[in-house]
Every structure is written in structure tokens, then in C-alpha cells.
Amino acid sequence: MALDIRVPTLGESVTEATIGKWNKQPGDAVKADEPLVELETDKVSIEVPAPADGVLEAIIAQEGETVGVDALLAQLNENGAAAAAVVDEKAATKTTEKETGTSAMASAELIDIIAPSAGESVTEAEIGAWHVSVGEAFAVDDPLVELETDKAAMDVPAAAAGTLAEILAPTGTVIAPGDVIGRISVGEGATPSAPAPTATPAPAAKTNGATTSMDPSPAAAKMLAEKGISADSVAGSGKRGQVLKGDVLEALDKTTAAKAEAPVQAPRPASSDDDAVREERVRMTRLRQTIAKRLKGAQETAAMLTTFNEVDMGPVMDLRKSYKDLFEKKHGVKLGFMGFFTKAVCHALKEIPAVNAEIDGTDIIYKNYAHIGVAVGTDKGLVVPVVRDADQMTIAEVEQEIGRLGRAARDGDLTMADMQGGTFTISNGGVYGSLMSTPILNSPQSGILGMHKIQERPVAVNGEVAIRPMMYLALSYDHRIVDGKEAVTFLVRIKESLEDPQRLVLDL
């Protein structure tokens, strides 16, 4: 029979605790009243004993997790006399499973988690975040871990329902397609492997000037490291002078109060130690690293300039207002601005092919097609999916494809094919409120168009001042291949198409 081991009542005003240290691992035999796990509150550490003889079947709450009162900590397999026999047998024989720190029920099966292929030209990826921890249960197709490539991030789903038995590739590990990055345990009675210890012992704490051999509790050690405080400067109130989380919080409160009561003094020179306490170091994702390298490379390689113009968005806005309901009903997609801009760009590229070309050594490659990249901001960084053969599409088809690519980008479902082969890029900083910017080239392309916020401004129309919805346009281009005259003409053609949308229909 399986017994639930739960968080006991911690005190009248204490509602949560942190898992300190598990004294037993799944598969270990235990006896009644034997301490299983240490819980840490702000003021004290307590041990949770085994309610009966048996075998620790599964650990639900891992070390470092914060749990509330009555939360499930683990499960104990109790079988009366049989359980006692198991205890004696394990104590006498010290089986191989005990020595290796892993155990599994006979009916459990281990399945490898294999890194999938991320595309034809992708030879490696980096482990991002594991969505589940060792011992945590999940359903089939639940995301287990995120892989980061130079182009995008992708989740690896669970091939079967079970629990995560082992993590072989922790966050930050560079792996190749086909590598085994972890194992899941499936089947009745499946139990996880014990995770390898990762904590580094903290320095010994002092209590009233006396050094003790008790290390700070795990929660306290973590907070000491985060705040940049030495354990020697904090008095411990735990057993044998152990520094607890509450001791660190109390020390921080005293420091804050002392600063508040201190008389105002003349500014002192800035200290790098003070700054370090307020800093946070976060690992740069592989995608962000690639973005940084390519954007810096574009600056170093191209002779980049930017030219500006402004466009009256009134005609396009009037057209959208008149036909948006009919358009959405017929095509199943909303009529936005990107369809108009994409078609205007395609018309201008036909007239000024240098903006659609790229340099390869001492050659210029002119593209007789228009694959338009649309920059999309995601929580993991900027990605540029590509609308292929946009020059052959209708505005409705462009809007449908942009909608599909935008959803895929936000959901992390973009493929390598979705982001390759672009010949020109459109970036819309206006959605974030940008009034003017100088977009950076998406190498090896020779041009990028920056859209901005539509803002009503007074302008001269037929000799009179009128309030019109205006947008600034910016074209950044590679001056090695595009002359100034061509760049200005290109931007003027876009302006003309947007201010007179009939040109797009008549191909003028």
C-alpha cells in the first residue's frame, strides 16, 4: 500500500517551507520514524519522519522547491512484514542499485530522449530550459525540454507518458541531432533515478564569533550567493549554529533599516562590490548569440546608409475601412497594412533590382524573385520568417502567409525553411510606438524597410494645412551595391503606391 508523505503543520503563521535535503532516495528502504527529508522555514529547520516501515517509492518535491502545508512530498510503499524484510535485505546486501543511486521497479521501462533533427543545415543545438524536473510526471506529447539553434527554439515532446528518470544534458550543453539527452520512465511502478548532486558546500557560518561545522541550509546558501553576503557575517539560529533562510532575511532587514536611519552623507565613490549585489547574470540563448553576431557582422561588412521619407496613410486606411469586413469574410484573414507594404515593396524591387540583390565576393547576384522577410519580435529575440515569392501573391495571400508565420514564430514552431532565402526585409517598429528609426541590414541582403507609427500631423495639401495620418519610412541599404539615387527612387515608389493604392492593382 502506498502512503502519502505530506508537509506537516509548520506553525501558526508559517504557510510554506523550502525542501532542504532528502536523506533517502527512491528505492531506499526506510524504517518508521526515520527522518526522510529536511524542511526549512524562515526561522527553523524540521525533519519529516517516515510514518511506517517500507520503501521510498517516489520523490514528488525536489530539493530547493517551495511547498505549502499539506503539499505532497513523496510516496512510501508499505507492505507490512514484507516491507520490513526489504529493509533488512537492503541493509545487509547494499545492492548495485543502492551503489549507483538509481532504482526502478521491475515493471518500469526506460526510454531514451533523443535530440531531433532541427533542419538540413543544423548540426548542433544547445539545451535551453528543462520544462520538467527529475521525478516529475507528464503526459504523452508534453514538452520536456527546449532546444536552441542558431535560427529558432524548439520543444522536444514526450514520446510516452511517464516520469523524467534522468537528465543527461543539463541546460547549456551543446548536443548534436541523435544524441541521448535524458531518459523517461514508463510503466507501472516507474520511479526516477536520483539526480546527481549539484550543490557546492557553503563556507562555515559563525554564531556569536564561534565557528561551527554546520553549513548554511540550501535555501540560505542560495540567498547568500544571490545577495553577495558572506555566511560569516550572519548569525545562525539553527541547530549547532546553522544559518537558515530567516537569518539571512533578518540580516538584510537590519542592513536596510541601518541605511534608512543613517544620517545623510556626502556621496561616496561608487563601489563595484555594491553594484554586483544588484546585478543579475543570465545565460544568453543560442538564438540571441546568433542575432548578435550577424547584426554586428552586417555593420562591419556593409557600407550601410539610411534614407527617409514620409507617406500619407489616409488612402490605405480609407480602403481598409471600406472593405475590411468583406475582405475578412471572403479570405478568412483581416486586412492589415503589411499586405499593402509587401506589394508596394515588390513593385519597387522590379524597378530598382539592385535593392533586391546581394554581393558574393566580386560578383553581384540579382534575384529575379522577391522573398520578403518580415521581422517578428518574440520573447526569445528577433526572428525573420520569409514570405516566399511574394511578388506572385495577391494581398490576401500575403496576409494569410504573414499570419501563419507570425503565429508559428510566437509558438516556437518556425522551421528552417520558413526563415531561409529572404531577399529583402520589412521591419515594423510602429507596433511598439517607434516614430523614427534606422533599421539594420539583415545580411547578406542589401536593403531593409522600416515602418513606423502612424501619427496625425499638420501637412500642406494643395496649398492648405491639413491634419493627415502620416508615417515616416526608412530605407537602410548597402551603398556598395545601391547608389543614393536608386535608394531614394525606391522609397519614393513605395510612397507613391501607398498614397495611390490603385497603382498596386494596375501594376503601375
TrEMBL record:
GO terms for molecular function: dihydrolipoyllysine-residue succinyltransferase activity. InterPro entries: 2-oxoA_DH_lipoyl-BS, 2-oxoacid_dehydrogenase, 2-oxoacid_DH_actylTfrase, Biotin_lipoyl, CAT-like_dom_sf, E3-bd_dom_sf, PSBD, Single_hybrid_motif. Keywords: Acyltransferase, Lipoyl, Transferase, Tricarboxylic acid cycle. Its cofactor is (R)-lipoate. Residues 2-77, 110-185 form the Lipoyl-binding domain. Pathway: Amino-acid degradation; L-lysine degradation via saccharopine pathway; glutaryl-CoA from L-lysine: step 6/6. Residues 187-217, 259-278 are annotated as: Disordered. It is an enzyme of class 2 (transferase). It catalyses: N(6)-[(R)-dihydrolipoyl]-L-lysyl-[protein] + succinyl-CoA = N(6)-[(R)-S(8)-succinyldihydrolipoyl]-L-lysyl-[protein] + CoA. NCBIfam families: PRK05704.1, sucB. This is Dihydrolipoyllysine-residue succinyltransferase component of 2-oxoglutarate dehydrogenase complex. It comes from Pseudahrensia aquimaris.
